[in-house]
Amino acid sequence: MMRVSRHDDRLAVATSAYRLTIPFGRSLCHLEDADGRRLADLALCWSAHRADALDTTLGVGLPELMSEPPPGDGQGAASVAVRIRLDSSAWEAKSLHIECREDELSFWVELRGEGRLTELHAFAGYSSGTMGPGTGWFASERYFQTLFSPEPHGPERICWPASTSAAIDVVGGGPGRGHWFFTPPPFCFCVSRTALSADPYDVPDGPWLAMALLTEPGRHGYVAFSYQAAEDTFSLRLDYEGHERVSGTWSSPRVILIPDSADPYVGLERHRRALETRGLVPSMDAYEPVPWWHEPIFCGWGAQVQDALRCGGSASQSCTQLDYDRYLRSLAEHRVIPGTIVIDDGWQGAYGRGEVDRSRWPDLRGWIAERHSAGQHVLLWWKAWDPQGLPPEWCVSDTTGRAVAVDPTSAGYVEQLNADLELMLGADGYDADGVKVDFTASTPSGPALQAQGALWGVELLHRLLDVIHAGARSVKPEALVITHAPNPYFAGVQGMIRLNDFLRFSRIEPGTDIVRQLRHRYRIVKASLPGMLIDTDDWQVPDRASWRAYQAVKAELGVPSLYHTTHVGLASEPLEERDYSAIRRSWAVTRTGARN
In angstroms, what CA-CA distances link 421 with 5, 365, 379, 388, 405? Predict the structure, then answer.
């Protein structure tokens, strides 16, 4: 039951899940759990920076009740809305809005004015509006100790000290940007007052507080949603990079706080339900996997790498028709027959096009026809964003005019991509059965880049995957599109989620447990996209023992995927008959479940 009380010096809202107190004349509010334990002192002076001006809050108004609770003691309100006017140095008007419901509360800022938005800082900002604590940058004080981010990165832990910053984004690669395994995962951080244990795969006790985004479709113009920590403070940030145009009145995505979850995976589930009930993401009820999608997968990349390790050269050079015939013969000798085959990196003449390199694959169409005759399906690996082979006018470019990525807002590129999908999947083309989309973390980022259309960040990636998925399904209605974007907003632009690479070999540390690592990613996918098929992946393993441990549980997690034919790991340890027998057993379980 919600209780709202107004006093001379504060406004307070109490429910069975939390307590929120907004002192008058202060630039912060207090959030407590239902037992009165402080979770955070949340800064009210949010900053929304323009490309030409940093935003400082010059004054904080008194909280205004925008929806009145019932008369009497204030009990029985379904929700309570509060507005706090903020004087701004960069905008004609700025106000912070709070909506309190029984088991959640949300915050968002409304702006009026003109400008290109670069960064939105939630629960932090520049302020000179309350002279007591001084002036300058203020963030929120935290009373929680542990942070959970659903974006895996190495060295991989499930939880981190709350003094550690983290990002959920659509970019990756390079130092400090190793968090590309899921692009994007759900936009939801979780925090707990309980401290970390020494076990990197342990989840501390709750209750957990989820801090997540509620964004309207088409409004995900940010590249990253970040948790920023310093000393005993924190804040949240959205990076728009100057590509978000504010003209007139503009409302930010809501930051929803969901308290009292048993663990962070429950927090992810509750976030997804909050999105679904508001109609902000597609319902998973519309997801209908095709029966053959359940078939075990062989992806040739691991075998290609083993060839490179033994013979030199690059792994992509081993993506040839002869090599894949050899890979499948080797597996068949051990009675391992995949239902789906992924032809990986190296089959194309240029990364940006769907035309085959005939020097490597002289008869791709005939080869796929042979697989179909054997009752198998074939997917073609696709490197997202690579502009190789495309004219610059179809690409995102920098200020020099250099193409840095494909542009899914370009009509010319979309037309060419659909033509390439027709070639790749059409009956008159190569007649493949779908695509495995990789390198989504190469989403263009930076204030100096320019696309033809207005989309940017998450929306630009969503647009690219939407074109690929819709184009593939229009050519072949049962086409399978595999991605690594386990975000509820992306539910309608993919058919299967891959768990992605294990930790890089160079980042594998003593005690790394690949099975627990991938179970963690599995739980993220199941919480965010319940019912969607999962490609268990198989790359990259440090040694045979780790591979065997993971092989034993793949059928529990999703569709078993095999990357290897004869050897695994950097040491090229040979697979033995016991390994092939384990693969056959796992695949038999999967196939039986698919038939049932």
Answer: 60, 14, 12, 16, 18
Q: Quick one: pLDDT at residue 70?
A: 59
Domain holding 102, by residue range, is 3-143+211-280
Write the CATH number for 106.
2.70.98
Query: How far, in Å, CA of 338 to CA of 409, rounded?
Result: 37
**How many helices and strands (H and E) does the chain possess?**
10, 34
Amino acid, res. 391: P
Residue whose structure tokens are 């949603």? 225
Query: pLDDT tens for residues 85-122?
Result: 999 999 999 999 999 999 999 999 999 999 999 999 99
Number of domain units in the chain: 1
Nearest-CA neighbor of 48 among 106, 105, 96, 98? Answer: 96
Q: What distance in Å separates the CA atoms of residue 423 and residue 404, rounded to the nearest whole number?
A: 25
Residue 580 has pLDDT above 90, yes or no: yes
Report the pLDDT value the prediction gives residue 510, as an integer from 0 to 100: 54
- Residue 466 neighbours by CB under 8 Å, 6+ apart: 492, 493
Neighbours of 121 (CB within 10 A): 23
8-state DSSP, 130: -
Residue 507 has what pLDDT? 55
